[in-house]
């Protein structure tokens, strides 16, 4: 494949993203004011609760079957490794550049989570369509590529909305903002239930001992006073011990709940992933919903229609947030340069080593397209969903937009350079 062809393949999806970002910026300027603060907030909620689950669940149901899950088991591991590698490098970058603590989550998330969905949906079919592609027949390559990209997108969505979401949320708490209003999905870990339990338990214990004492034979006054004093001491000791134990349990629960929102592990995208996998794997359900002759195919078509709105809406939000970033941003030049180096230099090199090692020990197999997708997952720009998360929490919105602008701008060059190298490595 000629270099100019590869350049066009890598440039087109990135250019589309930048153009839609520019539209979002235009809609947010005060004179137009279509994507103001309130509009962006409501649009984020629609993306979070409707568009992303429809995209993830519909794509998985259409393309993933039981056989593909067995043969592609290493992909979830590989994507997890991209997150782990990026997180570690991002944390080091934050320390080196002395990034403000409330932006740690944004920087770590930008280094960890790549755009494993919509960019691959454009790049992989374009590569397959080339006449001298190393991936064989065009139709077979496109079909297999769609399955790979759909699974990649779904797994990435689960990791982003469970892992990156909670990282940005936890570091965002350091800014002093009340982040409980960012999403209606939350857990009340205030400890009131435990406090009530402790009070009721202590009162019941004292009543029980008093009842037992009253049932006994009544002693004289001196004996009664002595027994009563001993009983009070016992009551105080028992009460103090139980309160101490329950207080420790309450403290551990509160500390754990402050670090992670348990309910956020079951986000709408995670639930959609489970549903999509069940539909794709269970043959009777798949025949009811998927295919031109399926009786309930209208459900799948509706989900696909909703899912198509995900990428443009998220990109518009990033562009609208860029307006604040152009005026004032806490992101320095060295921080942006560090993210670019991590995403486009260090991570791809590490990714080549991981995929080659997995192939050597037999985890991946000999499918060159599969290996190519695994490698390119390490070299993509940050996921657009990060912009949605920062918008939900109102933490680092403008900084996120600046990071997205520069990383996607550089992606047109980096993807052009890495794509032919990856293709040469998997075909040699």
Automatic annotation (TrEMBL):
Tell me a GO biological process for this protein: auxin-activated signaling pathway
**InterPro entries, alphabetically?**
Mem_transp_PIN-like (IPR004776), PILS1/3/4/5/7 (IPR045033)
> Main location per UniProt?
endoplasmic reticulum
Q: Where are the transmembrane segments?
A: 6-30, 42-61, 73-94, 106-127, 147-168, 265-285, 335-357, 369-393, 405-426
- Give GO cellular component annotations, separated by semicolons: endoplasmic reticulum membrane
What are the alphabetically sorted keywords of the record? Answer: Auxin signaling pathway, Endoplasmic reticulum, Membrane, Transmembrane, Transmembrane helix, Transport
Please explain the role this protein plays, according to its UniProt record.
Involved in cellular auxin homeostasis by regulating auxin metabolism. Regulates intracellular auxin accumulation at the endoplasmic reticulum and thus auxin availability for nuclear auxin signaling.
The protein's name in its UniProt record? PIN-like protein
- Protein's organism: Deinandra increscens subsp. villosa
* Lineage per the UniProt record: Eukaryota, Viridiplantae, Streptophyta, Embryophyta, Tracheophyta
């Amino acid at each position: 494949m000629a270099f100019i062809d590869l350049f066009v393949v890598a440039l087109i999806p990135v250019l589309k993203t930048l153009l839609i970002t520019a539209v979002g910026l235009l809609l947010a300027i005060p004179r137009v004011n279509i994507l103001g603060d309130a509009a962006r907030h409501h649009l984020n909620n629609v993306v979070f609760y409707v568009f992303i689950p429809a995209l993830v669940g519909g794509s998985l149901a259409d393309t993933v079957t039981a056989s593909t899950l067995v043969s592609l088991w290493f992909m979830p591991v590989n994507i997890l490794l991209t997150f782990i590698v990026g997180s570690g490098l991002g944390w080091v970058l934050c320390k080196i550049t002395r990034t403000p603590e409330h932006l740690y989550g944004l920087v770590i998330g930008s280094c960890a989570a790549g755009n494993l969905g919509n960019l691959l949906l454009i790049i992989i079919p374009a590569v397959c369509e080339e006449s001298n592609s190393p991936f064989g027949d065009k139709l077979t390559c496109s079909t297999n590529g769609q399955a790979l990209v759909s699974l990649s997108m779904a797994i990435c969505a689960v990791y982003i909305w469970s892992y990156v979401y909670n990282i940005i949320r936890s570091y965002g708490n350091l800014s002093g903002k009340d982040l409980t209003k960012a999403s209606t999905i939350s857990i009340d870990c205030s400890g009131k239930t435990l406090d009530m339990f402790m009070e009721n338990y202590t009162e019941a214990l004292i009543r029980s001992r008093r009842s037992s004492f009253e049932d006994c034979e009544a002693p004289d006054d001196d004996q009664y006073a002595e027994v009563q004093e001993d009983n009070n001491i016992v009551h105080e000791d028992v009460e103090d011990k139980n309160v101490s134990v329950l207080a420790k349990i309450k403290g551990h629960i509160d500390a754990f709940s402050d670090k992670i929102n348990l309910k956020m592990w079951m986000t709408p995208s995670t639930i959609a992933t489970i549903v999509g996998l069940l539909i794709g794997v269970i043959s009777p359900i798949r025949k009811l919903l998927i295919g031109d002759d399926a009786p309930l195919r209208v459900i799948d078509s509706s989900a696909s229609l909703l899912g198509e709105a995900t990428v443009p809406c998220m990109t518009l939000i990033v562009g609208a947030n860029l307006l604040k970033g152009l005026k004032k941003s806490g992101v320095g030049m060295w921080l942006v340069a560090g993210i670019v180096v991590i995403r486009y230099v260090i991570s791809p090199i590490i990714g080549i080593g991981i995929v080659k090692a997995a192939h050597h020990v037999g985890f991946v197999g000999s499918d060159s397209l599969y290996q190519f997708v695994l490698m390119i997952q390490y070299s993509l720009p940050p996921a657009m969903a990060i912009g949605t998360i920062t918008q939900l929490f109102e933490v680092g919105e403008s900084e996120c937009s600046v990071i997205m602008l520069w990383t996607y701008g550089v992606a047109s060059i980096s993807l052009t350079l890495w794509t032919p190298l990856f293709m040469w490595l998997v075909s040699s």
